[in-house]
Amino acid sequence: MRMYDLIEKKKCGYELSKEEIQWMIQEYVEGNIPDYQMSAFLMSVYFRGMTDEELSALTNAMAHSGDMVDLSAIQGIKADKHSTGGVGDKTTLIIAPIVAACGVKIAKMSGRGLGHTGGTIDKLESIPGFRVAIPTEEFFDIVNKAGISVVGQSGNLAPADKLLYALRDVTATVDSIPLIAASIMSKKLAAGSDCILLDVKTGSGAFMKSIEDSITLAQKMVHIGASAGRKIAALITNMDIPLGNAIGNSLEVIEAVDVLNGNGPEDLTQVSCELAANMLYLADKGTLEECRSKVKEAISSKAALEKLKDMVKAQGGDVSVIEDTGKFERAEYFYDVIAQGSGVISHINAEEIGVASVALGAGRETKESTIDYHAGILLRKKTGDSVKAGDVLGTLYSSSFEMIETGEKLFRAAYTIDPEAKQEKAALIFARVTEEGIERL
Ligand code: URA
């Protein structure tokens, strides 16, 4: 086979065979196909798309390019979730303990922040002492005993995705629905869980800006997962507005603990509970209604909070900061951003809020940057709220006052205050996608 012929075939809109796709991924990972040819192929996919058969073949080839995690040493059903990434998205810290408290095992590998979006592993590392790099045997042991463990991705999980993602990043081919679907699902299939719930974010803070594109992405991922024999569903959720009020690592852990204590922000609580109920449903824990009741009970009984504490303890973290979040170290500087005009907040650009939090030190500007775990933003006003001049829109936290100055400019630019706008609350969940079809909510 020659890579030139495969590029030519895709460029002209013909379907590639499974064997061709497997060969291409294997040769690329082994370094036998140069980046310039793979870049040309990715751009052809960007414009031509992929059939369902091609997409399944690509995803499987990428998943099998490294370790396929075997979770059979863990008893019971294992469930995983994946968010396509957002701003203030700390749902894993809430959902994983809830689902574990309801008897479904969570053996989860999570990622770090990417661009303006945060990552679960960075958030967990803001808990003093918390270890995210854990040998496999210990990881299994923690899940068997505590029912839950969240660790960083092992070095050899879907290496083809690592190479392809880096190439897409510099060839303007990140925002291709089939390439995103293959990237996410290759890692999910390799990570080994029986049930997979996808949280496909849509809106200004997400990769997918429109609901229809998000549904298409969800359908493709659900189809890949189901074809690989996994139980899988997707919820399309709102990322036009940051989720909850906290953006930044330890600030988000504190807010997640608030939800598990029953006093978190309403939007975050609602989305997290619905995601958790859908995970339990996939794991055969009852009807969706019954699963929703189990989720409520796990929060009100504090069973889910106990699970979070069990995990923190097992992974070497300081449980006292979970028991009393006031014990988390605070950023050196904080600054209230005051509204200069009155009206209704008609829009918050979630991506720009994410960029502002990175500028404050909560994310990485470059691969080498170190994170300030206590930096970030607490939103005091969100889309649909009315404001008067002089009200606090949000509080910025950082260890550098210069960063606060930059962050303030970015934060202000993200807000649109309209004296004429009506006070309206946005929907939180737009649709549920399964192999059976799309349910608009
Ligand atoms: N997240 C991923 O893992 N891959 C993509 O391509 C986009 C988001």
TrEMBL record:
Subunit annotation = Homodimer.
Look up keyword Glycosyltransferase and say if it applies. Answer: yes
A Pfam short name? Glycos_trans_3N
- At the top of the EC hierarchy, this enzyme's class is transferase
Q: Which keywords appear in this protein's UniProt record, sorted alphabetically? A: Glycosyltransferase, Transferase
| A GO biological process held by the record | pyrimidine nucleobase metabolic process
Record's family?
A: Belongs to the thymidine/pyrimidine-nucleoside phosphorylase family.
Per its record, the protein catalyses:
uridine + phosphate = alpha-D-ribose 1-phosphate + uracil; 2'-deoxyuridine + phosphate = 2-deoxy-alpha-D-ribose 1-phosphate + uracil; thymidine + phosphate = 2-deoxy-alpha-D-ribose 1-phosphate + thymine
Q: Does the keyword Nucleotidyltransferase apply?
A: no
> InterPro entries given for it?
Glycosyl_Trfase_fam3 (IPR000312), Glycosyl_Trfase_fam3_N_dom (IPR017459), Glycosyl_Trfase_fam3_N_dom_sf (IPR036320), Nuc_phospho_transferase (IPR035902), PYNP-like_C_sf (IPR036566), PYNP_C (IPR013102), Pyrmidine_PPas_bac/euk (IPR018090), Pyrmidine_PPase_CS (IPR017872)
Q: Single GO cellular component annotation?
A: cytosol
Tell me, what does this protein do in biology?
A: Catalyzes phosphorolysis of the pyrimidine nucleosides uridine, thymidine and 2'-deoxyuridine with the formation of the corresponding pyrimidine base and ribose-1-phosphate.
What name has this protein been given in UniProt? Pyrimidine-nucleoside phosphorylase
Q: Which residues form the Pyrimidine nucleoside phosphorylase C-terminal domain?
A: 344-418
Q: Which PROSITE patterns match?
A: THYMID_PHOSPHORYLASE
Output the Gene Ontology terms for molecular function: 1,4-alpha-oligoglucan phosphorylase activity; thymidine phosphorylase activity
Q: NCBIfam families under this entry?
A: PRK05820.1, PRK06078.1, Y_phosphoryl
Q: What is its EC number?
A: 2.4.2.2
